[in-house]
Design brief:
By secondary structure, the protein is of the alpha+beta class. The protein folds into two domains: about 90 residues; about 160 residues, Glutaredoxin (3-Layer(aba) Sandwich). Helix content is about 35%, strand content about 20%. It has nine helices and nine strands. The protein has a five-stranded mixed sheet with strand order 5-7-6-8-9, sandwiched between helices. Helix 5 packs across helix 7. The chain is globular, with a radius of gyration of 24 Å. The N terminus is likely disordered.
Length: about 280
């Protein structure tokens, strides 16, 4: 009789577990219920696309959430990615450490996934190198223009130690000229030209320049390559840039330079210097 009771209890527990919601589902349901109260939106969909443990707070996780919705007024589609925090009982959009005042929304970013390490983004080093360094950069970003070439030059000296991956992340709102510059770099690379990337940071052009002809002339002068405006608009160039921007969006990259080292966001941008 005791064995039968234990069996029944185990079955009931298993049944409850099968019907229990996962933490991801709980987050999705809560946000859908909350956001759906907004009378201005319709066709709402909330999805948790990544989950990370918050090392600084025991029991807390960070959830990367994608929200898709349609505005009722003009039927405009809206897509937003954000991070929420929960310990299973509480949920919050902001978590700030009392000691140090660090905002965890700035710290908790998705890890660099294996599928993002694409051969076309490997600019220096052996892909089987001991360490992997990843750069997201705008060639007209003032900090990028000093930091990125210096870091690339230093790491490329040791190809067995560092595999270096580079992703274009132009910032059109503040550096509109950078969009055409990175398209030119990709076009030159696809044509077989070597070592174009470092010369990209030597192009002298007003970051606010919108004239494609002027931007291309400056690129050609700095690199010694002759490209036409048609080269910049090829399907392969546009697809390559779109791929870089898609990965940046997946990783919630917002500024430049952004660096990942061995799959993790490196806010200090100095971890490569600490490698023995």
């Amino acid at each position: 009789m005791l064995s039968m009771s234990k069996l029944l209890l185990s079955t009931l527990l298993l049944g409850n577990l099968l019907y229990a919601k996962t933490s991801n589902e709980m987050i999705e349901d809560f946000l859908e219920e909350s956001i759906s109260k907004n009378p201005n939106i319709e066709n709402l969909d909330v999805s948790v696309v990544d989950t990370m443990k918050v090392e600084q707070l025991k029991g807390w996780n960070a959830y990367v959430v994608v929200i898709d919705a349609t505005l009722k007024k003009d039927k405009q589609k809206v897509k937003q990615k954000m991070t929420w925090f929960s310990n299973g009982e509480l949920i919050t959009k902001e978590l700030t450490l009392l000691i140090g005042g660090e905002n965890l929304s700035d710290v908790m970013k998705p890890s660099f996934k294996p599928e993002y390490y694409k051969d076309e983004n490997l600019v220096y080093g052996d892909k089987n190198a001991t360490h992997r360094a990843v750069f997201f950069s705008d060639p007209l970003c003032p900090f990028c223009r000093t930091f990125v070439p210096e870091a690339l030059e230093e790491m490329k000296k040791e190809p067995s130690k560092f595999a270096i991956y580079y992703f274009h992340f132009p910032l059109p709102a503040i550096h509109p000229a950078s969009v055409e510059l990175v398209k030119a770099e990709v076009a030159a690379e696809l044509q077989g030209h070597k070592n174009v990337l470092l010369n990209l940071y030597k192009v002298e052009i007003d970051p606010r320049e919108n004239n494609v002809t002027k931007i291309l002339e400056a690129f050609n002068k700095a690199t010694g390559i002759t490209l036409t405006t048609q080269d910049l608009e090829s399907k392969n160039v546009m697809e390559r840039l779109a791929q870089d921007l898609k990965i940046a969006d997946d990783l919630m990259v917002q500024g430049t330079p952004t660096m990942f080292f061995d799959d993790k966001l490196d806010r200090t941008k100095t971890l490569y210097k600490k490698v023995q």
